[in-house]
Amino acid sequence: MKFLKGLSEIASSYDLFIIDLWGVMHNGIEAYPDAVDCVRELGTRGKTVVFLSNAARDRRHIAEHLLKRGIGPDLYSLLLTSGDVTIDAVKKARKDRNSEIGEDLFHIGPDRCVPTFTACGGKDVSIEDAETILCTGLYDETSESVKEYSDLLKQAVARKLPMVCANPDVSVKQGERVLPGAGALAALYEELGGNVYRFGKPFPYIYDQLFSMYPDIGRERSVMIGDGLFTDIRGARQAGIDAIWIAGGLHAEELQLGGEGTINPEFALEVAAEAGEHPGALLCYLTW
User: Fold this and answer.
1) What is the dihedral angle through the alpha carbons of 72, 77, 83, 86, rounded to the nearest 10 degrees?
2) pTM value?
3) What sign does the dihedral 200-202-204-208 (CA atoms) show?
4) Is 192 exposed, middle or buried (0-12, 13-18, 19+ CB in 10 A)?
5) Vertex 54, ends 78 and 202: CA angle to 5°?
6) How confident is the model over 6-13, as a mean pLDDT?
7) Which of 28, 27, 48 is nearest to 39 (CA)?
8) Which of 4, 32, 167, 241 would you label with 111, given CA atoms 20 to 30 Å apart?
9) Is 237 helix (H, G, I), strand (E, B) or coil?
10) 192-202 pLDDT tens trace
């Protein structure tokens, strides 16, 4: 694993830069200025930038969220979210008579993700009448715990309802807080005996959609930049592309990242190896 001081050291090796949002471009509250400048520099050099996010909302809503933080559409070629691919996958599944994903849906998730639920189509029903659970997150991740959903999920397991998880992230960093994500509910559902369909990183569906939009750029000229070992880095490996691990995001505390971006290289290697991952390079923060 190469330890980089800036992306400029290896930028010439790639044409397509696939960049995570939370933990890389912003912290859920404000954008990282160095990251914004870095992406702008990639654009001036003719590189293609794609933002790939495990946000359960569709790209239109996330684009609005980014714009409020100074990350405008001029900085990227494409924004693709796990919400987008979930909507696509659920619509296709509902047309397949052999799919267990039904038309009657029960939504678990915050109000901000209701548009994702609506876009999936089907009927909004109670847990008692549902054929499928669509999980976009906790109702309020800032005040609730995953354990509080045990009884509800046990009820769904007893009815053998499949769960569609629109955001595989187990946790997400918001400012200085780490909050539970939809992926944590999906993990609990599986522990209880339920069946889960996940859409987003690290699963192939979202990468296959992305690369279908850029047929002229080979995977050998593409790189994933992200902070999540189990989503971004694992997804890159499974998609057959290189990865740059951002240490200052989700794993910053675990990596014992110093205040000035200092890190113990050997320890970082150990943390990655424990997760079963071996990213090609590491950056403390996305900077040019």
Assistant:
1) 170
2) 0.91
3) positive
4) middle
5) 100
6) 97
7) 48
8) 32
9) helix
10) 999 999 999 99
Half-sphere exposure of 175 (CA within 13 A, CB side): 3
- Amino acid letter at 81? T
How many other β-carbons are positioned within 10 Å of the β-carbon of residue 6?
Answer: 16
Structural domains of the chain, with CATH: 2-54+202-283 (3.40.50.1000), 96-198 (3.40.50.1000)
d(CA 239, CA 253) in angstroms, rounded, equals 28
In single-letter form, the type of residue at position 5 comes to K
- pLDDT tens column, 235-279: 999 999 999 999 988 788 888 876 667 788 889 999 999 999 999
For residue 217 the two structure tokens come to 């750029």
The dihedral through the CA atoms of 255, 258, 263, 267 has a sign that is negative
Which phi-psi region, left, alpha or beta, contains residue 138 (left: φ > 0; alpha: ψ -120 to 50)? beta
Place of tokens 């659970």: 133
Q: What radius of gyration, in Å, describes the C-alpha atoms of the chain? A: 19
Non-local CB neighbours of 279 within 8 Å, separated by 6+ positions: 1, 229, 233, 236, 243, 244, 245, 272
